[in-house]
Write a structure and sequence with these properties.
The complex is a heterodimer of chains A (280) and B (336). By secondary structure, chain A is α/β, with parallel strands linked by helices. Chain A contains ten helices and ten strands. In chain A, helix 6 links the parallel strand 7 and strand 8. In chain B, a hairpin with a 7-residue loop joins strand 1 and strand 2. In chain B, helix 4 crosses helix 5, helix 4 runs parallel beside helix 7 and helix 5 packs across helix 7. Classes of the chains: A alpha/beta (280), B alpha/beta (336). At the A-B interface, helix 6, helix 7, helix 8, helix 9 and helix 10 of A face helix 8, helix 9, helix 10 and helix 11 of B.
């Protein structure tokens, strides 16, 4: 099934993905080495200043798609158009200018930064690579720290001293240094507790309005998606099985996989009847 | 309601923690008080949910009861009575024979808890060998039974598998099998679903429900998500900055939270659950940073973030009050 995400204007889309496929060879307990089609014929678009959420169960291929778009994996076939250029088959060197356009924020902020770096080094590293001067770097780092709700006085603390939520803010600050247009958020909330998740979500929503950022949100958390995304694509076994506006997907899911995800999200909510059943 | 779980002794006190104070002394930093006068009673066959943000002392509470605190932690005062024996006065040998057999733990991250170079079958079998006088064949039989109970369709294949060959959800079921293998009276589950997606979370909660119904095991389930505990726990205790600020029956805590912190948590949980007509927009939050236990302060530790702070909150510890049956709240609002 192909996706037909509602797009107001064709020219307005920042990211266009066409026929993207990627497979891995993987050891399997029962059958030895088998190829796994992690992504199969995936189509979608993300508009400027909009959020597309890709949802799906573990192993449905959402992270593979995210990594192909961030330029961390090369798709086997397909096109990834970012800002008018197809980056899918670019060489490592040719990809470099696009790294500043697309930034990725990973599941676990703790393992995505060098714990021996200070906060300043974490944020300034991309600027250093781009050859910015020391005063300029420090100035940008200070501005960004404030922007993500951290004190600029903490720039000299080591990254390991920050709490989980603070480290996720630091990761967001680092991602913003080069003025990206698209942030790929791969389960960026995993491992944070609810009030921290809410704070990070609010921060991202505010940044989106302020900087017209686009987000590609990878998540299994439908409730979060409902408040963050404009459009949703549902993945199952490497394919997009349903897509549409967030409202459509949540109020009128069509595909069984979408219904399953929605039901499990709803089942995880207050359910007094189960309590009675359990204690009977 | 509690009396229905199992026969005879249900509803008796199984574990009683009294005024427990635990302090960590990190090598290069100031000592941190992780638990500050925590009292909690767990009755036989009961499921208690412990709710709180990271750093509030939830895991320290579980590790204290299992006497498996890291070496830089010190229990300063308090009692931990399990079946009327104070665990703080047991010898290491006695503790070893009790851990895993009478009280067990479902760890937060099964990937870290399992030995990567041992088959999972052998790892479950190891727990049995440590505690029960079974022959090798009987042990293997019992492990197969346990794997079946955990919902594995082909237990023989899983028995021979190494942890890396299993998925996150499967590994979680292996550590649950380990935890229940010797039929403990009490299980501590430390964020048992935090590494899993929504579908698998439900499977694990259903599995724990089933274990509780079948074996009448009491459980202390630690989580930051009220919705996970809803409908599963009998009672919920909310922790903030090393103290239990509110405790009560699950449904009542969900519907009528009394402490301002519990109220804020429930607001966020409602916004984080899916509803018809949800629109893109900001979440409600609890403003301010999580309490830093290294900082000593007088008064209520939630005061800086509290919407309903009063003059009294600045100077004194809030008293424990019981505005209704089976409910305790530490807040000046109920101080009448």
């Amino acid at each position: 099934m192909t996706s037909d995400l509602p797009t107001s204007q064709q020219s307005n889309s920042l990211l266009r993905v066409r026929k993207l496929s990627k497979s891995y060879v993987r050891g399997n307990l029962l059958r030895g080495r088998v190829p796994v089609e992690a992504a199969k014929d995936v189509h979608f678009e993300v508009d400027c200043a909009h959020t597309l959420a890709i949802i799906g169960a573990s192993g449905s291929g959402k992270s593979t798609v995210a990594r192909c778009i961030a330029g961390l994996e090369r798709p086997d076939v397909g096109e990834v158009w970012i800002d008018g250029t197809d980056i899918a088959q670019l060489s490592f060197r040719e990809l470099r200018p696009f790294r500043s356009v697309v930034q990725m924020i990973f599941q676990d902020a703790a393992t995505s930064m060098n714990p021996r770096f200070s906060a300043a080094e974490v944020i300034e590293e991309p600027l250093l690579i781009q050859g910015q001067h020391r005063e300029e770097r420090r100035h940008i780092a200070e501005t960004l720290m404030k922007k993500v709700g951290l004190s600029a006085d903490w720039l000299d603390r080591s990254a390991a001293e920050f709490s989980g939520g603070q480290r996720q803010r630091l990761a967001i600050a680092r991602a913003l240094t080069l003025g990206p247009k698209l942030l790929v958020l791969d389960e960026a909330w995993c491992g944070l507790d609810l009030s921290m998740q809410a704070q990070i979500a609010n921060l991202l929503l505010d940044l989106q309005t302020e900087h017209s950022l686009s987000y590609l949100l990878i998540s299994h958390d439908l409730a979060l998606v409902a408040r963050m995304a404009d459009t949703v694509a549902v993945m199952s076994h490497g394919q997009i099985v349903e897509s549409g506006s967030t409202q459509q997907i949540i109020s009128g899911p069509q595909h069984t996989e979408t219904k399953k995800l929605l039901n499990s999200a709803k089942a995880a909510e207050y359910k007094p009847q189960l309590s009675k059943g359990a204690s009977a | 309601m509690l009396e229905e779980h199992s026969s005879g002794d249900a509803g008796d006190t199984l574990l009683e923690i009294r005024e427990l104070r635990v302090t960590y002394s990190p090598a290069k930093a100031k000592p941190v008080r992780a638990l500050d006068g925590v009292s909690l009673e767990v009755r036989s066959g009961e499921v208690i949910g412990i709710l709180g943000e990271s750093g509030c002392g939830k895991s320290t509470l579980a590790n204290s009861a299992l006497q498996s605190l890291p070496s830089n932690a010190k229990i300063e005062s308090g009692e931990i009575l399990f079946k009327n024996r104070d665990l703080l006065y047991l010898r290491e040998r006695e503790l070893t024979s009790m851990r895993g057999r009478e009280i067990s733990l479902i760890p937060q991250d099964p990937a870290l808890a399992l030995n990567p170079v041992m088959t999972v079958g052998a790892q479950i079998s190891e727990v049995l060998r440590a505690h029960l006088p079974l022959k090798a064949g009987q042990r293997k039989e019992r492990v197969h039974q346990l794997l079946q109970e955990m919902g594995f369709e082909r237990p023989a294949e899983i028995y021979r598998a190494y942890p890396h060959q299993l998925s996150g959800g499967q590994r979680q079921r292996i550590v649950i099998a380990q935890a229940i293998s010797c039929g403990p009276a009490l299980i501590f589950a430390d964020e048992p679903t935090s590494k899993l997606d929504a579908l698998l979370q439900m499977e694990v909660v259903e599995l724990l429900c089933a274990i509780r119904v079948r074996h009448g095991t009491a459980m202390v389930v630690i989580s930051h998500d009220p919705m996970l505990l809803a409908g599963f726990a009998d009672r919920i205790a909310v922790m903030y900055a090393g103290r239990i600020v509110e405790i009560g029956k699950c449904a009542e805590m969900m519907e009528r939270p009394m402490h301002p912190y519990t109220q804020a948590l429930m607001r966020i949980a409602k916004a984080s659950s899916i509803a018809e007509g949800d629109r893109k927009g900001r979440f409600p939050t609890i403003e301010g940073e999580v309490f830093d236990p290294a900082m000593l302060r007088t008064g209520c530790s939630f005061e800086p973030r509290c919407q309903e702070r009063m003059e009294a909150c600045l100077h004194n510890d809030p008293p424990k009050r019981a505005p209704e049956a089976e409910r305790l709240v530490s807040c000046f609002q109920y101080d009448k």
